[in-house]
Amino acid sequence: MLRDLIIKNRSYRRFDSSFKIPEENLKNWIELARFSASGRNMQPLKYLISTNEKTNEQIFPNLGWAGYLSNWKGPAKNERPVAYIIVLNDKSLATNYFCDDGLAMQNILLGAVEDGFGGCIIGSVNKGRVAKLLELPEHLEILWIIALGKPAEEIVLEEMQENDIKYWRDENGAHHVPKRPAKEIIYKKL
Amino acid sequence: MLRDLIIKNRSYRRFDSSFKIPEENLKNWIELARFSASGRNMQPLKYLISTNEKTNEQIFPNLGWAGYLSNWKGPAKNERPVAYIIVLNDKSLATNYFCDDGLAMQNILLGAVEDGFGGCIIGSVNKGRVAKLLELPEHLEILWIIALGKPAEEIVLEEMQENDIKYWRDENGAHHVPKRPAKEIIYKKL
């Protein structure tokens, strides 16, 4: 059921890095993104997949992890993502990609979860350095990097208290994420 | 299976308007949106649901339908959406909502499809007039309007030919949508 999949689809930041993701799975998830809606049907998004260990090691230091966990510098070596999908906008096709990025990435992540994997959308990226590292041509702009792997952390959803949006980790390492309650996000029903 | 749901989730613009959507379904879909990821966990998105016939009639003329179908002025009276979800950004919480809108709307639409309904994200909206009509306070900015109902049209996915992005309708009224092939959107695999 979709609801179960959506609840299981958390922003995972720690993985079992001994578990690799087959190329076929990654391509299947991008196929799901391909079927998502696109503003004016322009479809300007492109994807670069990396499962290459050396490239992944070079990408890693350019990513910001979990801003609110100030004492945590990101996943340890054995917890790191085993694959990245770099989401690109092809500016030669369109400068405005509307909400295509979110629509497409949600499909990718739900696909990953259905296959027993998971990931996290990272927006805090040193884009200039990653673009150089990946030798991206000028017209391909990095929008987001999806870090992927076999999740190795527990994530607990909670009702938000007193407008405190900060996620936090308990003494057992479980990651707690406060969510605004339904009555707060449904502004009105007419 | 997720893939089937994603393929069934097309941008439907013609509905059987005699089929109403129960309020419970609409709330369940927003619950799915509530569980989507949010940049910095800010969760600034809010939702206004309208199933009110009079309000829906007033919203309708403020929407642009299917830009490439220049001879089609939008759904006929008996084909119109029976519900709208107005996706709002609460600017008092955050001005930057990152890709939250796409992530959340994908969940809403997949939920709708799973329940036998469907919808279309509309970006071509006379936002000023809709905001006035709905008496929205200053801090709630209209991002998108999702038109929803029981789909009453056939949509055919096709491989794009010669970079022609325009969707079109055949003589039987089926709506054809060209999609860029996988080999074109996967820029590189490392």
From TrEMBL, chains A, B:
Domain of life: Bacteria
Pfam families reported in the protein's UniProt record: Nitroreductase
Keyword list, A-Z: Oxidoreductase
GO molecular function terms noted in the UniProt entry: oxidoreductase activity
Annotated Nitroreductase domain residues: 10-150
The family this protein is said to belong to: Belongs to the nitroreductase family.
Name listed for the protein in its UniProt record: Nitroreductase
Species this protein is from: Maribellus comscasis
